Structures are given as C-alpha cells and as structure tokens.
Amino acid sequence: MKNKIGTYSTRELSIKANEIRESIISxxxxxxxxxxxxxLGMADVFTALYFDLVRHDPxxxxxxxxxxxxxxxGHINPVLYATMAHVGYFPTEELQTLxxxxxxxxxxxxxxxLPYLENSSGPLGCGLSxxxxxxxxxxxxxxxxxxxxxxxLLGDGELNEGNNWEAIMLAGKEKLRNLIAIVDRNNIxxxxxxxxxxxxxxxxxxxxxxxxxxxEIDGHNIEAIIDAVHKTKAVFEKPSVIIAxxxxxxxxxxxxxxxxxxxxxxxxxxxxxxxxxxxTLNGKIKSEHN
Amino acid sequence: MLNPDLKLNTKIFSDDVEQVPIRxxxxxxxxxxxxxxxxxxxxxxxxxxxxxxxxxxxKFPERFVEIGVAEQNLATVASGIAAMGKYPFFSSYAMFSPxxxxxxxxxxxxxxxxxxxxxxxxxxxxxxxxxxxxQAIEDIALMRVIPRMVVxxxxxxxxxxxxxxxxxxxxxxxxLRLAREKTPAITTEDTPLEIGKGQxxxxxxxxxxxAIVATGALVANAMRVAKDLExxxxxxxxxxxxxxxPLDEELIIKVAKETKAIVTVEEHQIAGGLGxxxxxxxxxxxxxxxxxxGVQDLFGQSGTPNELIEHYGMGRDDIMSAVLKVxxxxx
Lengths: 290, 331
Hints:
The structure holds 2 protein chains of 2 kinds.
Chain A: H1 10-31, H2 37-41, H3 43-53, E1 68-71, H4 77-87, H5 127-142, E2 150-155, H6 162-174, E3 179-185, E4 188-189, E5 192-193, H7 194-197, H8 203-209, E6 213-218, H9 222-232, E7 240-245, H10 268-279
Parallel strand pairs in A: 1-2, 2-3, 3-7, 6-7
Antiparallel strand pairs in A: 4-5
Helix pairs in contact in A: 1-3, 1-4, 1-10, 3-4, 3-9, 5-6
Chain B: E1 19-21, H1 22-36, E2 40-44, H2 54-59, E3 64-66, H3 71-83, E4 87-93, H4 102-111, E5 117-121, H5 139-144, E6 150-152, H6 157-169, E7 174-177, E8 182-184, E9 199-202, E10 210-214, H7 219-231, E11 236-240, E12 243-245, H8 249-259, E13 261-269, H9 274-285, E14 289-295, H10 305-311, H11 316-330
Parallel strand pairs in B: 2-3, 2-4, 4-5, 5-7, 6-7, 10-11, 10-13, 13-14
Antiparallel strand pairs in B: 1-8, 6-12, 9-11
Helix pairs in contact in B: 1-6, 3-4, 7-11, 8-9
C-alpha cells in the first residue's frame, strides 16, 4: 500500500518545501512567539515524509494501516502544522491561529486539540520511546515482517535527555526493523551550539554502539532523504537512524546557523524580509511566485 | 459489626487471620485478566517477580516486555503501546514509578489521553529493611494531582485481584498502589468491588461517634481499633477508601454528617494523600473535625514493618489516640 497523496518529482517537492517555509514565517509572525530555526531547517525532511515516504491519508486520518509519525521535539511544530495543512489535513488559513486561545494549533502539539497528531509533545526526550512502544505493539499483532513503519523525528539538542538513550537501548535490543529515527542534526540548542552545551559527537558511533543502522545525510537534499529512508527498509536486524545534517533557519540567510533564532519568532520587518527571500528563492528568480 | 452485605472475612479480628501480600493479588489478577483481555501487555523494569508480574509473563510471554532498569522508558513505551489500541500494565516499585517518571506519566499518558495502569508496588514504610530510599510515601499525592488519573489503593490481596480484573474489563488510566508485606485478608471471594465506591466495612448499631476512613494495608488496623473501641463504648465506623480518586464524596459526607468526627488512616505523607482528599471534600461540603494518621513530613528508614508503622505514628495505638483526640475536639 502506497500513501494516498499522489506522486511528486523532486523539483515539485522542493517547491512544496519552500511554500512550507513561507507558511512557517507567516504563522510565526501571526503568533508573535515560537521557534523559527528548527522548523525552517526541517522543512525538506517533513516534505519528503508527508508528500512521498509516509503511508497516510489526510482524508482518512484514522486509517489503521497508516504509518505513524511521532514528533519528539514538539517545539518545531510550525513545520509539522504547515506540512499537514499543505498536504490536506486542514486549511492553510488555519495556520494563522497558531498559539492563539482556542486554536487547534497549540504552542506545543496537543492531540486532543488536533486529533490528527499521533502524540502530544513538548517535554523533550520521550518521543522515541513512544515510537518504540508503537512498534512493539505492532509486532505483537503483525510479526517481524509488518509493513507498517514508525518514524520518529528528534532534535539533536534533545539527545541530552536520558530517556532517549533508554529508548535507543531498548530498540536495539528488540531489533525493531520498522522503526526509523530521523535526527535533526543542526548543531544548535537554546543556550548555544550543541558541542558547547553538551557535546554529542561522535554521534554516529554512539547509535552504532547501541545496535542501530546509521546513515548520515544532507538534510536539505530531498533525493538523499528519500533514498536514505528506502535504504532502511532493506535492514532487517536493526532499527535505523538517519542523521540529517541541516542548517538551522535554512532558506533565510539572516536566520541561518544562528542559535539566537532557535526560540524566537520574527517581527514584521524580519518576516517580510524572509518572505521576500523565500519567494524569490534567494534572488534566483526575479518575480515572486505565489 | 462487620457489614453483612460485603461478606467479609469473619476472622479479621483474630491474630491468626490469613495474611497475603497485596501485590500477590495483583499478579494473580493480571494473569487471569490476560486470558479474556487479549489487548493487555505487561511491562516490567527489572522487578518482574518482585511485582508479581511473572505470573502473567509465564502465561503470555509474547505480551510481556522487559524494559530493564529504566522507569522513564517504562512509562513512555507503555504510552506508545497504548497508542496502538492495547492496554499496558507497567510495574516497578512505587518510588521509581511513579516516583521517577512523573512527568512522562503526565505528558505521554494523561495529557495524551492514553489508557494504562501504573502499578506501584512496595508503597509505604512497610517495605521495611530496604530503608527510606525504597519507601514511597508521596505517590498518592503525585498521582492525585494529574487530571484523568484514577488512584487505587486496595486493602488486601483479593481486593487488588478484583481491581485488576475490573480494570481489564473497563480500561482506565489508573495508578494501582500495592504493598510488599503480608496483609490480613479482610475481603473474601464474595465481597463486591466497585471502583469509585467506598465501603463501610464495620458499623456498630445505632448512631456512630466517629468514622475511621482508611486505605491500603492499614485498613485492617483500623478495623481492629474499631473493635477495641466497642469495649470503651465508642462507636466507630470503618470506611475503606480503595479509590482515592475519584473520591466517593457522597459516602464521606454521609459519615461526616452522622459522626461529626473523622480520622483518616494511610501509609503515606499527611500532605496530599487520602487525608488531604477527605479534608478537601469536607471543607467544601460539610466542615468536620479531622485527625490525620500518616507520615508527618518525614522520610522512612530501615526496620521491620511493624517497628516502622509504630515509629511513624501509624500503629493501632496511634489510631486509637487520634480517635480520642478527634472526639475530644468534637465535644
């Protein structure tokens, strides 16, 4: 069973990712608070997942045979909400309600408000273990050859949390072949660069030591993302992790690689500048696309 | 006299009453419930036999997950299992779960609206020689403040067994508090159980002077005290509150109106436990004099269960003193 989204070329997916970035900027401007760098950095990964890789159906969100996407670092939810809106779960106009009273788009994801979410998150470090639990439950019902996949998206900074390593240990022990973790390796967290706050390298070796299959990719190369996920499906004895090297703030030069943009939203002037840049693809095209 | 409707163990007042650890009732209940409810999955954090989960594991190895010594993972993996439509029971010592993994329980189970049972064994100072690090006396408070959480504290092994089976029949998000030590058998196979409904176990004839509201392993002590009070011509009702949340407010208010004097008894800190719940209920509905038997803002230590129960002021003499004190305050 394939997803019910249709098929897109890599070029079309890149354009989608760019539109999602524009939505992220405008929704953060409307909200007046929230996280900017992480969502922009993960737009390509989310696009590849929701428009290509993940088996799901926005018109039938409760479809039992769907793959599960578990967002662990809930603070990057602008990219989750924007992607879900663009792929058809709800109207893109609703994105402007982010973080407002009564909105389905809570400041951190809450599945009671937005039932299409697999999990609520925000407190860091406990998404992966939920994905492990889901994969274990699935194995009880469908055995080791289940065709369902469990994707967990994590931030690199949240790997400071011990709960992650408990989950990594258990998934390695249980050889959960249909569990795919994707780490947003953007090297920033709130207090600074990850290697200053709490060094994570050699990150690949750490996961390998826990019996995971490890790939490291350019997290902005949509073909590489899709290719890496396909490769995990040929790994039978281990869970897989994809370390996606990303640029925080990707797409807006003023925001890129600056940890100051981890946890703040753009003001009107900054947002206009960012939207202009995104709409002209960094000045590569003269007229703004819609 | 014993409430005849509840068909209680008539030997409860004798020193050679049969004693069974409450945790054992849970283990037997889970193994039995696993037969009819195929969605049950059991998770353990390296304390499988100690929490009596091995009885389930031996019967249903394919539905058992060994998490290792990792209580944060225990709660969150259970959340993922529940997300797929299964009903996880996860056990450890109460000090570690829900002691260590409180936020994971709040966010990934309660906030996420999952159904699961947190089984906290070895609650209270009666854990004994292991000492204060292993004696959870804060767990009721921790669980009681979480929205949606049902807090259960059975008074004996059979009640724990019936509770486990009841949960399997009608899944809830619940904390099930168990004790390590052998506890007198108060109930019998024929004693009814309804989650959320307190039980009047003991009631003298005529209007009572005081109500002893107790939970968990100390309910048996409360009954012995009520019996002894008869000789002093003091009429005491004993109420077993096996469901601390939601509290059976109707019953609490009813006995408060009748007696105008309440003593709460629990193997837990005074703050935030059964006593706190009863006080909140009565302050709002029917202000009544209350004395609290429980741990007075202290940590536990090594000793035999009885030594510790008495040292921390939860023995039969202490319950008796609390009764006399509250009667004094009433008059």
